[in-house]
């Protein structure tokens, strides 16, 4: 049976993290994914580790900023060791820093891969997590995601499928194209047009417009086994966590 993960960023606006971990564990999640602000204060790591162990949760994956990976890989590895993180992804690039052509994105891919070399050498999976901008065509018709993965041919890819759809892409051809690169997937849903404006147009998994039955099958067929439920701005994180897991378990 697939052990589903929960991106803790989904609950950043709700209660103490200890309560969040207890809530998602009680619902039946086995894994969680961390994000930068969660372990920014290194003094809190032991408490976070204790809460994870108390709730029998494994923080298998975590998001780390490129700046931290590039300038302080030792701290990244220390955090990963403490929290037992095995899969490390850089999740974003601010708009002012984004290249405007394929050559620039290929150079970014090389930079990303070079920064991650100490992480990979230490035995971790390391790669990139996308948003919509990587799936917006450049002037030459190519896509930033192509150039990133071309520039860093050993990078793993955590595919945020719904963001690709928000970039007006059909995810299935991309799943087939990068079948040997996708090591994890974010599982979230998009509300019908005009709905859930207070949640930035996102929806609980299984309640929106995404064909998660077909997408999940395609991802499982290429060997993906790390599925991370996420909602970027839920009005009720417990509702999102419960409804999404119930749907995923029904697949």
TrEMBL record:
GO molecular function, one term: isomerase activity
Keywords: Isomerase
Pfam families per the UniProt record, alphabetical: AP_endonuc_2 (PF01261)
InterPro entries associated with the record: IolE/XylAMocC-like (IPR050312), Xyl_isomerase-like_sf (IPR036237), Xyl_isomerase-like_TIM-brl (IPR013022)
Record-annotated Xylose isomerase-like TIM barrel domain positions: 24-250
Signal peptide: none
Name this polypeptide is given: Sugar phosphate isomerase/epimerase
Natural source organism: Silicimonas algicola
């Amino acid at each position: 049976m697939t052990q589903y993960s929960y991106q803790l960023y989904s609950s950043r606006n709700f209660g103490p993290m200890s309560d969040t971990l207890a809530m998602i564990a009680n619902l039946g999640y086995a894994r969680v994914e961390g994000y930068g602000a969660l372990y920014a204060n290194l003094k809190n790591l032991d408490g976070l580790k204790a809460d994870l162990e108390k709730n029998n949760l494994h923080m298998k994956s975590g998001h780390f900023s490129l700046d931290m990976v590039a300038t302080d890989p030792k701290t990244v590895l220390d955090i990963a060791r403490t929290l037992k993180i095995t899969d490390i992804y850089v999740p974003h690039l601010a708009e002012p820093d984004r290249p405007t052509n394929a050559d620039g994105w290929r150079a970014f891919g090389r930079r990303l891969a070079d920064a991650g070399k100490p992480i990979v050498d230490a035995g971790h999976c390391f790669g990139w997590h996308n948003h919509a901008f990587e799936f917006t065509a450049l002037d030459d018709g190519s896509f930033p995601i192509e150039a990133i993965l071309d520039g860093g041919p050993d990078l793993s890819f955590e595919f945020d499928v719904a963001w690709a759809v928000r970039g007006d892409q059909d995810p299935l051809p991309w799943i087939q194209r990068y079948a040997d690169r996708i090591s994890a997937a974010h599982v979230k849903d998009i509300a019908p047009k005009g709905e859930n404006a207070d949640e930035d147009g996102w929806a609980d998994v299984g309640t929106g417009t995404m064909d998660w039955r077909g997408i999940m099958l395609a991802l499982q067929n290429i060997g993906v086994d790390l599925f991370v439920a996420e909602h970027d701005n839920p009005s009720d994180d417990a509702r999102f966590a419960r409804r999404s897991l119930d749907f995923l378990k029904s697949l």
